[in-house]
Design a protein that fits this description.
The complex is a heterodimer of chains A (324) and B (306). By secondary structure, chain A is mostly helical. Chain A has 13 helices and two strands, in the order H-H-H-H-H-H-H-E-E-H-H-H-H-H-H. Chain A has a two-stranded antiparallel sheet with strand order 1-2. With 306 residues, chain B is mainly α. Chain B has one domain: MetI-like fold (Orthogonal Bundle), CATH 1.10.3720. Chain B is built from 14 helices and no strands. In chain B, helix 2 packs across helix 14 and helix 5 crosses helix 11. The longest helix of chain B is centred in the middle third of the chain and has 37 residues. The radius of gyration of chain B is 22 Å and the shape is globular. Chain B starts with a helix and ends in a 7-residue tail after the last helix. The chains are: A mainly alpha (324), B mainly alpha (306). Chains A and B meet through helix 1, helix 6, helix 7, helix 8 and helix 10 of A and helix 6, helix 7, helix 12 and helix 14 of B.
């Protein structure tokens, strides 16, 4: 197990190295730190001096090593637009995205688990059929369309929910949260539902198929034969064994959800990381763009490594044969 | 020709197609959509690329059956005064073309990698599959968005817009090849030990020939199944990128950029610019997905239906 863990961590570090290298190449090729600092009114000669001083004429690899060194201290350069360290900008925007992902995950959990279990236990019931049919339609609807239609119906026509922004936030030890005010929660409802809509079909199907498989196994039959109550068999014995694959898939999907926040946040003008990323593309704020890529890359790598290690702990065969 | 047609009619594939109502309906809808979009230059009432046919005075007209609608524009007009029916037909053509192109690119990369990794095995296999694993662990959508953002920085916005079609094909192709590589590798591993491969080796055929002429045809059923789903995915990715402004520009709109353009006008009540392209996009993706599901069940009956 120790060797497996070390191997996984080494691999994670290697991936981070590749990501940082890609990120740095983009920055090196297309970003212009001089422009970021001085603007247009400085002469070419002064620029050259500044360039030399900042070490921008050094060989590529020297600069890359310097970039890596700074990155390990959390310094990913200065954003051209915000005039602040890129890391500060990202950390200031992160709470909004985390709250959105958190709320969406809660919705996914509380809807998909009951619906999936129900569909597994009563496959012929009309509700199960509608759910399964609905899930394939759900997969085919892009998240931004769901979001726009929700805005049209619930904000413009019915005026139930506000259509953009985060609403009123409370500063909680530096963390600006919208979860504690009614206004903030009202703003959260639609983005969270829209974001959860992409994950729901997948999870309902997954839980249903896992549960059906477990219900066929010997030990469940034995439990019936022993005369245990139906309720106990289904919700304690069967459900427990459904959860394992769901958790591992869920861990990976959490990262994927982060990707979809870009779309959701754009529609709802949600001031989080995804919205910031798109703005940085439009403003060609290369430093911030690269910082985002590295930050999100790191989150993905960490989540995946954790999921792998947990999976390795639970399922020893993985350690020997590699993943899946 | 006649013989092969007869063969097809007698095949299990056609037999199960005839018995599956959902498959027939999906196929019919797909056919209508494809014909509509590819014959757009012939049957569309207006040409949205022709600046002269567009009158800004006609902008944001509602569909014909509504109060201010005009019978000239059946589903209304967009913010530039383009007829929505024609623009959508042209847009869908772009969406389908980009989707097909991207899937072809993915297939070429993915199948080659899958064949090489599966057949040659060893270190190369390990390396290639790790690469695929790592890329898959990032969502394909995220990879596509990041790559297109990088391309846009690289080329500059106006050049990017000019080259949008080939670039989108490349972006989506790069983002989704691992799906193919994994599937093909899995079937290659199944085929590798079979007798006909042994026989081909004994005869002294080259590795390349064995891989591409002998093993590849036998992995085709799984390739076909994922290809259908991948086309749907590619259309979806293209729409998402265009919606973010990283795809097709507004003067050559695909369904995604139409939705994006319409979104700005939804607050003034012009819902049709968003809703109609949205419906067509969902319809297109849905019928392809349904056909993919059906194909998976037919070609691979052992597969667990989840």
């Amino acid at each position: 197990m120790f060797a497996f863990t070390v191997k996984r961590i080494l691999q994670a570090l290697f991936v981070m190295l590749i990501i940082s290298f890609l990120g740095f190449s983009i920055k090196h090729q297309f970003g212009d730190p001089i422009r970021d600092i001085v603007g247009i009114q400085v002469s070419v000669k002064d620029r050259e001096i500044l360039r030399e001083e900042m070490g921008l004429n050094d060989p590529f690899m020297t600069q890359y090593v310097r970039f890596l060194k700074n990155a390990t201290h959390g310094d990913l350069g200065t954003s051209f637009f915000h005039k602040k360290p890129a890391m500060d900008v990202i950390l200031a925007k992160a709470p909004a995205t985390i709250e959105l992902v958190f709320a969406a995950s809660l919705i996914v959990m509380f809807v998909s688990i009951p619906a999936g279990i129900f569909a597994a236990i009563n496959p012929k019931h009309w509700f199960s059929r509608v759910t399964m049919g609905g899930s394939i339609v759900g997969v085919s609807i892009p998240v931004f369309l769901t979001a726009i239609l929700m805005i049209y119906f619930f904000s413009i026509t019915l005026e139930w929910f506000p259509s953009y922004g985060r609403g009123e936030t409370v500063n909680l030890w530096g963390w600006h949260t919208g979860l504690l005010t009614i206004d903030g929660l009202m703003h959260l409802v639609m983005p969270a539902v829209a974001l959860s809509s992409i994950m729901l079909p997948l999870f309902i199907r997954l839980i249903r198929s896992e549960m059906m498989e477990v219900l066929e196994t010997e030990y469940i039959r034995f439990a019936y034969a022993k005369g245990l109550k139906k309720r106990r068999i289904r919700y304690v014995h069967a459900f427990k064994n459904t959860l394992l694959p769901v958790i591992t898939v869920g861990g990976v999907q959490l990262g994927i959800m982060l990707a979809y926040t870009i779309l959701t946040e754009t529609v709802f003008q949600w001031g989080g990381l995804g919205f910031m990323f798109l703005e940085s593309v439009e403003r060609s704020d290369t430093t911030l763009l690269v910082a985002y890529i590295i930050f999100v890359g790191a989150i993905f790598v960490i989540v995946n490594t954790f999921v792998d290690i947990i999976y390795g702990l639970v399922n020893p065969t993985i350690r020997v044969s590699g993943r899946k | 020709m006649k013989q092969s047609l007869q063969n097809f009619k007698d095949s299990y594939l056609f037999y199960s197609f005839k018995r599956d109502k959902i498959a027939i309906i999906s196929f019919a809808i797909l056919l209508v959509l494809v014909v509509l979009s590819f014959s757009a230059p012939l049957i569309a009432p207006y040409n949205p690329y022709d600046a002269e046919s567009i009158d800004i005075m006609n902008s944001e007209m509602p569909p014909a059956w509504m109060e201010d609608g005009s019978s000239e524009f059946l589903l209304g007009t967009d913010q530039q005064g383009r007829d929505l029916v024609s623009t959508m037909m042209y847009g869908m053509r772009l969406s389908i073309l980009i989707g097909l192109g991207a899937v072809m690119l993915q297939a070429v990369i993915g199948i080659s990698v899958g064949l090489i990794a599966g057949y040659l095995g060893g270190r190369l296999d390990n390396f290639l599959m790790r690469l695929a694993d790592i890329q898959l662990s990032f969502a394909t959508m995220l990879v596509a968005i990041l790559v297109s953002a990088i391309f846009q920085t690289m080329f500059g916005a106006s050049r990017y817009n000019e080259l949008a079609v080939p670039l989108l094909v490349i972006i989506i192709g790069i983002a989704e090849w691992p799906q193919y590589a994994r599937t093909v590798r899995a079937s290659v591993l199944g085929e590798k030990g079979k007798e006909y491969v042994e026989a081909a080796k004994v005869v002294g055929l080259s590795k390349v020939r064995i891989m591409f002429r002998h093993i590849l045809p036998n992995t085709m059923s799984s390739v076909l199944v994922i290809s259908t789903v991948q086309v749907a995915n590619a259309v979806m990715s293209e729409a998402a990128l265009s919606f973010l402004g990283l795809g097709m520009p507004v003067n050559r709109p695909s369904l995604g950029s139409l939705i994006n353009a319409g979104f700005e006008y939804i607050f003034s009540g012009a819902w049709w610019i968003t809703l109609f392209p949205g419906i067509f996009l969902v319809l297109l993706v849905l019928v392809i997905n349904l056909l993919g599901d059906w194909l998976r069940d037919v070609l691979n009956p052992k597969l667990y239906k989840g």
